[in-house]
Amino acid sequence: MAEPFPLAPSLWATTAAPAPETPPLVESGRADVVIVGGGFCGLSTALHLAERGIRPVVLEAHEIGFGGSGRNGGQVIPGLKHDPADLIARFGRERGERLARFAGGTTDTVFDLIARHGMDVPHRREGWIQGAHTEAGLDDLARRARQWADLGAPARVLDKDETDRLLGTDRYLGGWLDGRGGAIQPLSYARGLARAALKAGAAIHGRSPVTALDRTGSGWTVTTAQGTRLATERVVLCTNGYTGGLWPGLAQTVIAANSFQVATVPLSDNLRRSILPEGHVSSDTRKLLLYFRLDHTGRLLMGGRGPFREPRSPQDWAHLERIVGKLFPQLDGIAFDHRWCGRVAITRDYLPHLHEPAPGLLIDIGCQGRGVGLQSAMGRAIATYIATSDADSLPLPLTQLRPLPLHPLHRLYVSAIIAWYRLSDGGIR
């Protein structure tokens, strides 16, 4: 996909820890496992495979963290879009509860990896607050908090006064707090995963786009744009929102929506203390949700949906800049020094999908905007599956590829859905 509008680099690119050396693949050879995609899932899979003594090679089309892994909001949010009761109704009690516990523990995976490998990653774990902008949203949040608390999560409902105090805005009716959530510098985290994987024995090659996957006997031949080839028994494909035509029909199973973000200039101490004063991260109950946090440099980040197409000018971020002033009147007129966007893979059922369309080829796709924790934990599960061939080690059953109907028209109907959601969500009062 094309690069975003060439403005200043993203906030994460400006403030990230240095990247490890990941030169292009220049020599053909063999690998135990070839991983296509150098984001959170690919890097976590590589790290956990290497720790098991399995030699993986990661091939990334651009640079480590180029896609959504290096362009997200850095919020580490547990769970899935579906609440535990919904998962149990869908998968049955045993599998549904197991999936809920997996999803609830994804944030632990991130912070444990940062600590265990001594990663140079600014991070904070004070919890995630979801604010409700309607009365119906309040009912949903109370039910959600109760379900997670029943599973042992540090979850509780917030009344309006506490929500106002913890968020620094009076524009929500209430909310709930999940103490498992937190924040990271996502590009530094991607680079930290890469460093840990390299140290464990993985090989990682940037600027090595894969152009073909060919079945050869009982294994695979993976070919890059440079013409180099790797022979392997196993391929893991984890390209998510930047999935192209490498495997037929895969890109048609998701909507690769663009998530836009802006960051203010560093706030003064008094302004910083007036917004998210205890260091929480937040997103709300809107269908076109807003998500916001302070970063380690004292900037306020605001994220949300923008045009489905790639941005054409700074005006494509103007709606988020206006929202900052409406949510936080104390910041009305504040300057913004970073604007960027990244693609999120959204599936029809709002669940991650695992596919095995041919022997030795495993595909992970669909992060629904919660990729930091989800894909970190998914990589560990994939590594276990590859090492043991035990399908029960995967959090979800393997399913067939099912392209979305009328996918060639997805840009049109996604744009229409976004317009409808904006109307139904209502404005920021």
Automatic annotation (TrEMBL):
<dbReference type="GO" id="GO:0016491">
    <property type="term" value="F:oxidoreductase activity"/>
</dbReference>
<protein>
    <submittedName>
        <fullName>Glycine/D-amino acid oxidase</fullName>
    </submittedName>
</protein>
<dbReference type="GO" id="GO:0005737">
    <property type="term" value="C:cytoplasm"/>
</dbReference>
<dbReference type="InterPro" id="IPR036188">
    <property type="entry name" value="FAD/NAD-bd_sf"/>
</dbReference>
<dbReference type="Pfam" id="PF01266">
    <property type="entry name" value="DAO"/>
</dbReference>
<feature type="domain" description="FAD dependent oxidoreductase">
    <location>
        <begin position="32"/>
        <end position="383"/>
    </location>
</feature>
<dbReference type="InterPro" id="IPR006076">
    <property type="entry name" value="FAD-dep_OxRdtase"/>
</dbReference>
<keyword id="KW-0560">Oxidoreductase</keyword>
